[in-house]
Amino acid sequence: MASVEHCLYCFETLAAELQGRKPMTLDQIKKSWAEYISSTTPAAATTTSEASSSSSSSEAAVKQSPALRRLAASSSSSTSSSSSSLSLTSSTPATSLSSSPAPPEGEEVASSSPLFITWNTNHPRHGYILRGCIGTFEPQPLATGLSSYALISALQDSRFHPISPSELPKLQVAVTLLTDFEDAKDKMDWELGKHGIRISFYERGRRYGATYLPDVATEQGWTKEETLVSLMRKAGWSGREEGWEGVDLKVVRYQGRKEKLEYEGYKEWREWVEEQQGRE
């Protein structure tokens, strides 16, 4: 499951790149985060130290840190959509990220996973809007994949100009780890709000393919049929809408584990880190 530590790592990677310094590693952040939570909430020190690398640690951290608690509340109420690119060079329009139900308590965080990194910026009138998003369906070691895609999505998404240092305070990052890939029995064998889908099909000798991540359809208020037609259009299909059912669609369904963090939470933790370093 994606965690607060993963979000911190993305912010740390981007901030260090923009500020010209060396970033902390994922392992360093996990250790520092556990120490930070222990120092700021002494009553939770034992629980946090015992589960610092698990998803329950991330959940506890959000509950125990006032800033992150506010961030979690803000995240849950947000209804803005995202867009995603699938690789370093290709993109898929209007694809949004989603989370599925949390895994059982104590489930270990994966060391390698397909992933998407989304950057949103806080607009004064529209709330959080997309600023960059790129991911991959190929499993990535998290220690390298998160940092790579944090920078690629922030600086190389061709739909936007690169994120600048002045934008950092307005940013929110969302990390989604993709799981449970399955071949659907047919084009309707998936659940709205639970599954993301990848479609592929051939038309006049040309292969088409595209994806929507799990919460796109529900955010847009689409039915399954509307979702599939929209996804076909985004793949480049130009046939008559009423003829979509005659197309032989291959569908792969999947789920996503997601965590969000706003800059305020990163800044609070980062200032604590610098204070500790100043004491050494």
UniProtKB/TrEMBL annotation:
Residues 44-100 have a biased composition (Low complexity). Residues 44-110 are annotated as: Disordered. It comes from the Eukaryota. InterPro entries: AMMECR1, AMMECR1_dom_sf, AMMECR1_domain, AMMECR1_N. This is AMMECR1 domain-containing protein. Residues 73-270 form the AMMECR1 domain. Gene3D superfamilies: Hypothetical protein ph0010, domain 1. PANTHER family: AMME SYNDROME CANDIDATE GENE 1 PROTEIN (PTHR13016:SF0), AMMECR1 HOMOLOG (PTHR13016). It comes from Podospora pseudopauciseta.
